[in-house]
Model the fold of this input.
Amino acid sequence: MHTDFVCYVIEEYKNKKGLDGKTVISFFIDHDLIKYIEECYGVLHTVGANYIIDEIDEITAQA
Done:
């Protein structure tokens, strides 16, 4: 598991959206985003935080 990277994404998302950690964790769990981050680590760790946040927004908008 890429725990450091998952934490990084959660922190970046939290800061960009102006949310608290508890809200973001619940959101990520509800949308299975931790699994997504783990499965896509190979690509996601090579792009910037803004791209990752945009991807999360796109994924969750489709849900």
